[in-house]
Design brief:
heterodimer, A: 367 residues, mainly beta, 2 domains, ten-stranded mixed sheet, two-stranded antiparallel sheet, 3 helices, B: alpha+beta, two-stranded antiparallel ribbon, 17 strands, 9% strand
Chain lengths: 367, 664
Amino acid sequence: MTELPNSNLGWEYSKTQNLGLDFSLFNSRLSGTVEGYITKTNNLLLSVGLPPTSGVSSYTGNVGSTQNKGFELSLNGVIIDHKNGWTWEAGVNLYRNVNKIVSLASGQTRDESNWLFVGHPLNVIYDYQKVGIWQANEATAVKQYEGSAGQVGMIKVLYTGGYNADGSPTRVIGPDDRQIINADPKFQGGFNTRVGYKNLDLSIVAAFQNGGILNSTLYGSNGYLNLEDGRRGQIDIDYWTPENPGASFPDPKGPKNSNNPIYGSTLGYFSGSFLKVRTISLGYNLSGKWAEKVGIKKLRVYATAQNPFVFFSPYYKQSGMDPEPNTYANDGANMAVSYGYGQRRLLTVGYNTPTTRNYLLGVNVTF
Amino acid sequence: MNRNYIKFLGLSVLAVFFLSSCKKILDENPRSIFTPDYFKTEAGVQGGITSCYGHLRLMFGNGYFLNANQISTDESTWGQNSDGNVKTLDFSGVGEIQAQTSNTGVLWGAAFPNINTASGVIENGAAVGVSEALVAEARFFRAFDYFLLVQTFGGVPLDLGAGELKFNTSTIRTSKRNTVPEVYTKGIFPDLLIAVDKLPASGRVTGGATKTLARLYLAKAYLTYAWWLQNPNNIPTYPAAQRTDPNGHDASWYFKEAYNVAAAGLESPGSFGLQPTFYDLSLGSNDRNNEMLLYADHTQASATYNGGDLSYSTGGFSTDSFAQWFEQWNYTNIRTSSSNTSWSAVSSVQRAATQSLGRPWTMLAPPQGVFKNTFADKSNDSRYDATFVTRYRSNWKEAALKVNNAIPENLYNANFLPVANGDAILSFLNEDVAGVDYSNSKFNSNIGAGVLPGRADFVIEPSAFSRICYPANWKLGPYRTDNNGGLGQPNGSLTRPFPIAKFSELFFIAAEAAVKGAATRAIGGTYANDGTARGLINVIRARAGKWRFDNGNNIAKVQDNSAAMTAATPGSIDIDYILAERSREYFGEGYRWWDLVRTQKWADYGRTFVIAGKTNPNDWKDHTVGTFTRNIAATNYLRPIPQSQLDALDMTAAEKKAYQNPGY
């Protein structure tokens, strides 16, 4: 039996308060909206994992209530309006959503196996927090913090326990040192612009995100691409050696948890910031008597690049890959070691097809 | 015009509604989710029993489960290719065993869902009309799981959320651990007693639970509990409990009962018995023989029913059988020469799906003490030869290896002597000899093996057995009938049944109980003996002295050394001798950690071990011998409760700390 039925299952319902302003100024040359909202969801439906001793792995229940607060801004303007053949329109939008779990039905404030923490968003990472790499001059300290497995060159994680009088930690680093790390972005948005000159037009659409955490299974412990145990099948990283102490990936000779380096999951957390140009499209509208003779009403030739550029993304800088997630966390088909049932709502970068970069040349004909 | 159109459309739509019958409502019958009321049907109950057998695969055959039950004993240490978690369990300084990373949690995760399923069957079976014998199978499995849990973790919860030993459908997320005596007297003995009574003498299906199997586990549970009550070496228990039996008996009573139940099992074996030779017991073509009381079954016929892919398995925490890979080293590195004038290396022993070979993960390696002490007798006792792969034979023809575009008739091995396909390329010698040349300067085996004058095969002496190169466990190797003259599919999940319980163990249990003071009596039946520890062990040793086939030399050998074997048995048997015999009988099958923990000898037997490769275990040529020590504390006799259990509990931090075993 894998999932228990829940006779107490009820509907999830939300109450929203929304305040907005739509405006348009300067003879509709500038228009925009500003909106703020608070949505409170009660009886949130979520899959919850049970402890192994229940004999059943999970059930779907009304596990708690959440709150989403945020604002949205958008501004659209016609900057040049058919002057000398030129037109230029631009628009930008910005939004920020703050999600928070308000309460859990069980009355707990922390559910460590399902990663549900009151006061934190649904999208969290509950793991050790990497603060660096143990350097060569910390050889005694690493043994104090990590026990006999401690070695210089391994990942240094945050310790939150107490200290003795001489400065040494009272215990080794353990499960109590796991942190709740909010993974939601600070703000997101996009902009678009269209420039036209007579029959020629260029449009650009872009999206951006600031903050948040991108969980990449390619670099973390849910995949086998960053085992650091050999060059074959290993993703390209800058790893620590005594001669290369500034690297951010640990020493390959370091201690392992199963096949991955200890605390290797922290290697998969990247800042989620990026600015992506989604499309750039250059088009030319052909017209003329010859077209009408053939019966063509409209003819447009265009070249489009989709996803051509990514800027400001630490993940793109490290890997050259798209900084947006593409897999659910417990999708075993797209990662070597999937997350547990309680984390299936979370998003990660898995092995499946990433966003592609496309270059298109096309003709639009209307008869 | 438009208005009429709309009217007409509107009318037609209405007409459709009223004129057609709206009786077709989607009636769903989802088949991928099973809910508790399924257990109230006969199909559900039978499905539940089948899943009891199925869950065995999550443990027996799982390499990490084998790792947890073999490593850190005198039988196994970590092999060269081990991952961090495998090495940590060896207690030899690589890391500390931890709740969140340890492979010892495999059992915890597999047992409780099965216990709950078994409880569901037991509660609903009678109402549904299923026979008592079938319900007794579920009782057996529930007790079986509790027995494994209590040996590994100490006291465990009897109440999964709906009451003691009740089928749980609640979503309660608290848990309370019962004490060890409570688990034995409420969760294990009653179910096994019913199982002994109601199970048939012969399995409902081949490999089904039987009276004899239930007797074996009842006797073993009595024996283990008696050791726990006596506690000669002061090993702590958790949750805290007095060493008194709630049913009012003492240790000697349980030793006596263990003996009696085992003796009854020996006298009325039903359809079971001992195989004529030890070789036949583990021979792939003789699987599911009459000595096997219980196994985790697999099949070559279908990947779905096998529980693992037949051609490429990733070996994870599922129903794959891949434990044997742990005990095989990377023999594919062996090189032989295609020319007898200058060394031109070719791969003569390739990965194949045969019982001696298979897929090499090299994660469990036997220390040298196994070969020099445990298996000191390699000539009279057939068990050494039928446990280990001592010769690695060439299979280049099956591999279709080509030299100059043709499959060669001969290759040239040590001393440039010719070898034919199927000849031994590498031999692990029985004892150290003088004059072995390990330089590999002229004849480069590529695995640091040695050369003796006049021999075509490379040789390695026992003092050179290392973490990277050692005799593999033959007993668990793959066996397929679909190789079709080629190498077959060695990377697939193993399709053989993985052994869990054997008839022979009844002898050992009775002998151990006798050594611990149980009154003995003459045992009748097919395996008649005087019933003393020596008499019982001698039945096993007599069988071990019988040869039908020489596994190492791959040739028939009919010899009966029973008399010599039984004469060599010491006059008075002690626990150390029984443990040594158990190692000879069950080496590498996952018995050892439990045997050493039951007899409280783990720290003694595991304290030091000797293996080569001291300086660099990854270097084939490193034959320097090292003595390693292990740091096993008394609190390590109980494994840590997995962190995933503690995380999922809805209890205070202090309660969770109290839930965990001390020392973790």
